[in-house]
């Protein structure tokens, strides 16, 4: 949850950013979300939020003048999403937050209430509801089934909507301690268990027939997923074969992070699945058809030798491959059908190729599309596109209070690292900066490190730019999206070549007149937090201030922790020793690039931020750095987020975190009060 109440330390700006947009405008929940097209293309459903409350709505696209059906929810309910089970029934997921003693929090209360202890901590409870299109016949899935309702805080994990069986869908729920798979009937709510999980099961995938195909188990910390494939025995029994073990994604934008294996959709032949994968020997991630019964790749579907392609568009009824999606800088959609591609190219031209056009849904006959456009100066708008008439209709903005005239543009920055490798980065410049004014720069390397940044609507970058700061986000070597060779170039380069790429990007901005070397800060989360601390210790004169959130500070201690948590023979420990270094062979090298062991070299003030519930990088990593800086007599602040994890932030914690970030930047960098012109 993003919080609407921040303050700024410099100049008494309070809730307003210096460009007159408010924090609340950026951080409020979307006014329009989870918009979905019915299979026949006539109806549009979604979630809307306004001053009257939160609603699930249904609109008739064939009769725009007809009154929309609005289903209101009370002030304690969060509507997560809505989806069509078939043309007549909707499934909606809702969450309420309460305590073990029965207290229920309102949405506003969660934003502003200060939780005093475990007894008052908000506990989310999620349930599914079946609703007729006209708003009648509302019923809760598993209502009255004590064996499930008492054992599950979350009964909203849809596995498949079974498009070829419109009266059923699949749900994952815990029964007797493991996550099992259930088939639920839409019209009656009746259910049957069709798959039994194991201890550690966290997900399921169904095949073309609606039967369990893949089971996903996680390690104790949830940092590694192991996939198992269903094996049908001649005697009629089913067993499960271990297939792949991969690192869990750090964040939800899955097509921004390369992967060795990720299921996407059932294939058209029983026993097969479309997967985003990088088989052994392949230089990039691509789309492949995979046989989960034999653990073999049947054939490549879409592979590019120069870039990672990590998402596919699949017909949900025929399971025909329609195309792929991947990021260059913006989202690129490729259809196999040339007519569909011509329509997509025309839409891109209409938007001046400045936004990501997400083809989110289509009617069964393909004549009506639902699109979502987003970009740095477009926070998100839904469009309905009539293919036959090439007519597009603006259905509504997700963030109507955000004016494009106040949002900051992003430019692509290409530069060469010191060894000649070409690097791409993105520079968000405060909108309306006067000619000749060089705003202070926040260098913001991403986490992962095998992830990437793209041109998109980034609330944090926009907030910083709205407060007068330029934001530079480099895709240093080791980032995903550019193929295995580029990712491998970052292996064992923590504090070395990866760090040099970030430094060289900053040097490029200085050389091209876009940054002032005396007015810049480095700020990052996770690996980006490590990079910020490495900059503070290895290049102490480079930045005026340093912000490190949720990042490692001692590489040897970090590797020891992973070994103790997951085991010395675990896939997770093997991954990190391959990526960072082996503490047995590389001890001196790792120590020489561990910021907590180099605190005496720090010159810039440092802000440390960490969540107590972080299961990816333990909070002790920040504590080590704070202790080392304090003992060395350096300037350090430590913001501890008592109810938050690695990337998830509870409401009060996020407010505390962001107030600290803005205040810290304002204390150490200089923003010209005459920075803006807004002549356009």
TrEMBL record:
Q: Name one GO biological process term.
A: proteolysis
Instruction: Name the chain's protein.
Output: S9 family peptidase
Annotated InterPro entries: AB_hydrolase_fold, Peptidase_S9_cat
Concerning PANTHER family, the annotation shows: DIPEPTIDYL PEPTIDASE FAMILY MEMBER 6, SERINE PEPTIDASE S9 FAMILY MEMBER
| One Pfam family hit | Peptidase_S9
Kindly state which keywords UniProt assigns to this record, in alphabetical order: Hydrolase
Highest taxon above the source species? Bacteria
Q: Is the keyword Cell membrane assigned to this protein?
A: no
Report whether Glycoprotein shows up as a keyword of the record: no
**Annotated Peptidase S9 prolyl oligopeptidase catalytic domain residues:** 457-670
**GO MF terms held by the record:** serine-type endopeptidase activity
């Amino acid at each position: 949850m993003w919080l609407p109440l921040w303050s700024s330390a410099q100049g008494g700006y309070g809730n307003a950013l210096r460009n007159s947009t408010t924090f609340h405008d950026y951080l409020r929940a979307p006014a329009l979300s989870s918009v979905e097209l019915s299979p026949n293309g006539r109806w549009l459903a979604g979630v809307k939020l306004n001053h009257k409350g939160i609603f699930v709505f249904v609109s008739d696209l064939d009769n725009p003048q007809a009154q929309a059906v609005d289903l209101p929810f009370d002030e304690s309910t969060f509507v997560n999403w809505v989806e069509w089970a078939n043309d007549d029934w909707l499934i909606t997921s809702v969450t309420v937050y309460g305590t073990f003693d029965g207290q229920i929090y309102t949405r506003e209360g969660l934003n502003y209430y200060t939780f005093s202890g475990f007894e008052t901590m908000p506990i989310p409870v999620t349930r599914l509801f079946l609703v007729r299109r006209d708003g009648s016949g509302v019923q809760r899935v598993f209502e009255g089934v004590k064996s499930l309702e008492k054992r599950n805080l979350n009964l909203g994990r849809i596995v498949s909507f079974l498009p070829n069986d419109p009266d059923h869908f699949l749900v994952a729920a815990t029964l007797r301690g493991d996550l099992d798979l259930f088939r639920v009937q839409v019209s009656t709510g009746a259910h049957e268990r069709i798959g039994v999980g194991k201890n550690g099961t966290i997900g399921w995938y169904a095949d073309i027939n609606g039967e369990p195909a893949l089971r996903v188990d996680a390690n104790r910390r949830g940092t590694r997923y192991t996939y198992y494939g269903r094996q049908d025995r001649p005697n009629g029994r089913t067993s499960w074969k271990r297939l792949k073990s991969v690192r869990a994604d750090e964040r939800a934008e899955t097509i921004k992070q390369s992967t060795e294996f990720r299921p996407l959709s059932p294939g058209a032949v029983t026993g097969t699945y479309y997967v985003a994968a990088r088989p052994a020997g392949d230089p990039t991630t691509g789309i492949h058809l995979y046989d989960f019964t034999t653990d073999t790749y049947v054939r490549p579907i879409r592979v590019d030798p120069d870039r990672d392609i990590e998402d596919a568009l699949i017909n949900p009824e025929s399971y025909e491959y329609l195309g792929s999606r991947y990021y260059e800088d913006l989202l690129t959609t490729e259809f196999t059908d040339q007519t569909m591609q011509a329509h997509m190219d025309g839409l891109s031209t209409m938007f001046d190729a400045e936004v990501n056009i997400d083809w989110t849904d289509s009617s069964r006959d393909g004549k009506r599309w639902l699109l979502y456009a987003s970009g740095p100066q477009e926070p998100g708008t839904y469009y309905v596109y009539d293919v036959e008439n090439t007519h597009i209709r603006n259905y509504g903005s997700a963030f109507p209070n955000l004016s494009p005239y106040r949002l900051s543009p992003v430019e692509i920055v290409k530069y060469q690292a010191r060894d000649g490798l070409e690097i791409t980065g993105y520079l968000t410049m405060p909108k309306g900066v006067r000619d000749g004014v060089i705003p202070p720069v926040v260098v913001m390397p991403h986490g992962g490190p095998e992830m990437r940044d793209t041109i998109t609507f980034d609330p944090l970058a926009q907030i910083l730019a709205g407060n007068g700061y330029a934001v530079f986000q480099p895709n240093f070597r080791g980032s995903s999206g550019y193929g295995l060779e580029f990712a491998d170039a970052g292996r064992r380069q923590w504090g070395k070549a990866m760090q040099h790429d970030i430094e060289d990007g900053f040097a490029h901005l200085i050389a091209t007149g876009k940054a002032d070397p005396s007015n810049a800060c480095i700020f990052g989360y996770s690996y980006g937090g490590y990079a910020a601390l490495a900059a503070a210790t290895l290049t102490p004169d480079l930045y005026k201030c340093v912000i490190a959130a949720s990042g490692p500070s001692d590489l040897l201690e970090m590797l020891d922790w992973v070994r103790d948590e997951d085991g010395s023979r675990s896939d997770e420990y093997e991954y990190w020793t391959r990526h960072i270094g082996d503490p047995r062979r590389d001890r001196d090298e790792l120590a020489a690039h561990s910021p907590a062991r180099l605190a005496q070299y720090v010159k810039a003030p440092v802000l440390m931020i960490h969540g107590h519930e972080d299961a990816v990088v333990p909070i002790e990593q920040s504590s080590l750095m704070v202790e080392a800086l304090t003992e060395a007599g350096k300037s350090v602040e430590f913001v501890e987020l008592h109810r938050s994890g690695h990337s998830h932030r509870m409401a009060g914690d996020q407010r505390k975190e962001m107030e600290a970030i803005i205040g810290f930047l304002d204390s150490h960098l200089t923003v010209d009060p005459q920075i803006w012109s807004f002549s356009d």
